[in-house]
Amino acid sequence: MKSDSYKAWYKCIDDCSGTYPLTEIIYRCPKCGDLLEVQHDLERLSSKSPQKWKELFAERHQNSTGPFASGVWSKKEWICPELEIEHIISIGEGRTPLFPARKLAKHSGIKNLWVKLCGNSHTGSFKDLGMTILVSMVNQVIADGQNIKAVACASTGDTSAALAAYCAAAGIPALVLLPKNKISTAQLIQPIANGTFTLSLDTDFDGCMEIVQKLTESKEIYLANSMNSLRIEGQKTVSIEMLEQLNWQAPDWVIVPGGNLGNVSAIGKGFVEMQAVGLIDRLPRLVCAQPKNANPLFESYKNGFKDFNSQTAKETLATAMQIGNPVSYKKAVRVLIKTDGRVEQAGEEELANASALADRDGLFTCPQTGVALAAFLKLVDQKEIKPNDKVVIISTAHGLKFVDFKIKYHEQRLPTLDSKHANSPFELPADIEIVNHQINKFIKAKS
Question: Which of 10, 51, 259, 314 registers the highest number of CB atoms within 10 A of its CB?
């Protein structure tokens, strides 16, 4: 069953003439070579009133099984309307918490602060949101008779985990190319556990990306990286879901970690489309946060996006963001301009301490989220973010994927970094008086 009369298609981001069906295996504009994006028939979407859309989304939240139980597929008409429901591959993605970070709010002086926990997903990152769309489309294309032997991606860890899980669920072979010794063990083991053919290449992410693009020149190997615009469609549901959770009141700021820049592009796209259809009356200001050691978008932002220079990304604790040549640069710039957005950077010590500070709220944040948290604190210090502003910080992955980072922080073993919020365990003899003494000291310090 299709979403009757709702339509979407590929079109060049530089507005070259020509459109292409979503079932076509195409990643770049054949005329100019730039990226494509998915465009929707916004006039048709607008034929249903904003209130009716809100009621439909709320009604689908009552589903506990089936595709509409997914936070992504409950927005099917806005995402991939012409895909047959029987070909959907879903593992319950989306519907992630919007967490009120009260201690961090008090620390920063910002009264209304939330963290959107996109890492509370099957494979532990927001990448599931786009991968359910992509693998479902591959499933349909194969059913329609196209010969696809495998789906492939280059990854800094999270994309490979999502691809591996969804392809395993669909019964489709997957190939992942990872930079050797540059991702966490938890990230490496996920595709291995799902039976994916995993290649550990002696290069960085950008080198892996170059190779995977050559591999996928053959249409028998389908590209799963975010230059495939289907991924963006799934990830944009973060913005729709966020607005549902905020009773359709747009926040003032949304802060997004930015590596390959697909996520900030997707979230911005969601806001722009919701405004066009009338679900919201204003756009939040987007902030893209980058680590100082891998900051090509920040460097471009400093000159007003007049030019862009790729770079060789330096080593960073935010390993998933160690990208010097992001493929979604133009898309990110476009949504940042539309939303009067900002780009901010964070040093290694800043991101590590911001991550640890947020954990005092009961979170367990990844280093990528630490970059966004540090950017938030900087914008507060700069008085860009005001005390009464409503702020949402996007958490992209679960901290359990980065346990080594957490352990080293609290054991103060991160080189050259001052772990301001380290909390190492006390080693004491098994003596009740000594134990009681230390407990009383702890309670007194907290009171």
Answer: 259
